[in-house]
Write a structure and sequence with these properties.
By secondary structure, the chain is α/β, with parallel strands linked by helices. It contains 13 helices and 17 strands. The chain is globular and about 70 Å long. The mean pLDDT is about 90.
């Protein structure tokens, strides 16, 4: 078929750099047949092969949306800058507590034994279908949950697990949405909005009107708009189609009753804060250390451009994942906690990948253990311990090809 426009959104997602060539050849074949391919992509292996580049920015949210460059590329031979040459230093874990699984046979895994040093950053790498998710998501995660006395929907197949008693908690930080309705927002999900409500309730204006912390919750009948019940939107049922939301005509989307909106701090009502970006809210509470520190975590994760009251339905998978990570950091639970992330760099450019690396390193420095399934060479190069699965996918995969410490570079 010819003269067709193909639009692809990050087709490299989930692919090992070794697999890029297959996709690149398909795209090349499409071009030969006079088709046009438009691709949203961050991987340099694809960018370097483009005939025409369009770059938007300079940053995210309202700070983006500008055309930075649109130009034809003269030399598009490409490079292999996304590849990562794995060279473990040794396979011995000495002086460290470890989490070990023996005889793992989940899906295509070939009766393997693995070791993971605690309080370190471990990257599980390998070609697509090599068994990374089978090992981490379907075996390690449910196995640790079981040891901690918690239920799991998935049960991996293994003979024994050791070292899980040294862990107090395990979190799987996925890219699933933080909620399915406009009521789910970053502020309430992370817990920072709870502190803000408490602060507003202690203001003299609020005390004079005998308003409590509950009045400043849009989920409470005491302060919410009686028409939209604090949602700010009215849902219009569409039966077999997704509901349509329209702005509430009574509160104009502000969620609260008028008496609550009269209470202001530095000229802002609590509803005003919901419409502000997190970096702006952070400046409002610069003198309130606990609130400021929690909001600063969003900034360090590179997502301070999102609004405090932004609907969960408008967040990307990468944004949702980083909000979940921010919540855990806000809770301060790091020591002897296991964090599992599946390709957290998806949708991130190099600058945001570096911010993520700093956060993951901060977690391990504070006693957390982090396991990441990843293909991004920037993140892999900052790992402490590497487990490489392979050598191929499907039945030809499921083996531990390489395992060992990695000599860390610098960002």
């Amino acid at each position: 078929m010819t003269n067709i426009l193909y639009v692809m959104d990050e087709p490299s997602k989930g692919l090992h750099p070794r697999d890029y060539q297959f996709l690149i050849e398909v795209i090349r074949d499409l071009k030969k047949l006079n088709n046009t391919v438009i691709m949203v992509e961050h991987k340099k292996a694809f960018i370097d092969r483009a005939d025409y580049l369009v770059e938007v920015g300079p940053r995210a949210g309202k700070y983006g949306g500008q055309l930075l460059r649109a130009e034809e590329v003269q030399d598009n031979k490409g490079s292999n800058r996304d590849t990562f040459d794995f060279r473990p230093t040794n396979k011995v874990i000495s002086g460290n507590r470890i989490l070990a699984l023996k005889g793992v046979t989940t899906n295509n895994l070939k009766n393997i034994d693995i070791k993971i040093p605690l309080s370190k950053l471990t990257c599980v790498i390998g070609v697509s279908g090599s068994g990374k998710s089978s090992l981490v998501s379907k075996t390690i995660y449910p196995a640790v949950l079981k040891k901690l006395g918690k239920k799991s929907d998935v049960t991996g197949e293994y003979k024994d697990i050791c070292g899980a008693n040294d862990l107090k908690e395990v979190y799987y930080v996925s890219q699933n949405p933080i909620g399915k309705t406009p009521r789910s927002i970053p502020g309430t999900y992370s817990g920072v909005y709870d502190l803000i409500r408490d602060y507003y309730a202690k203001l003299e204006q609020a005390k004079k009107k005998r308003l409590t912390k509950e009045h400043f919750s849009f989920n409470s009948k005491k302060g919410q708009c009686s028409e939209c019940k604090g949602a700010g939107l009215i849902a219009v049922p569409m039966h077999f189609m997704p509901d349509i939301y329209t702005t509430c005509t009574k509160c104009n989307g502000r969620r609260y009753d008028d008496k609550i909106l009269e209470i202001k701090y530095k000229g802002y009502s609590i509803s005003d804060l919901l419409e502000m970006e997190i970096n702006e809210v952070k400046e409002v509470f610069r003198d309130e250390k606990k609130i400021f520190d929690m909001l600063d975590i969003f900034d360090r994760l590179g997502i301070s451009y999102i609004k405090l009251g932004q609907s969960a339905t408008t967040l990307s998978g990468g944004e949702a994942q980083r909000i979940k990570l921010a919540k855990q950091l806000c809770l301060g639970k790091t020591k002897d906690v296991l964090y599992i992330l599946d390709e957290p760099t998806t949708g991130l450019d190099d600058e945001n990948v570096k911010k993520l690396i700093y956060i993951l390193k901060e977690l391990t420095n504070n006693g957390a253990t982090v396991i990441v399934i990843e293909h991004n060479s920037l993140l892999i190069q900052q790992a402490d311990w590497i487990i490489e699965m392979g050598p191929d996918g499907g039945n030809l995969g499921g083996y531990v090809v390489n395992e060992g410490w990695l000599n860390n570079g610098t960002i």
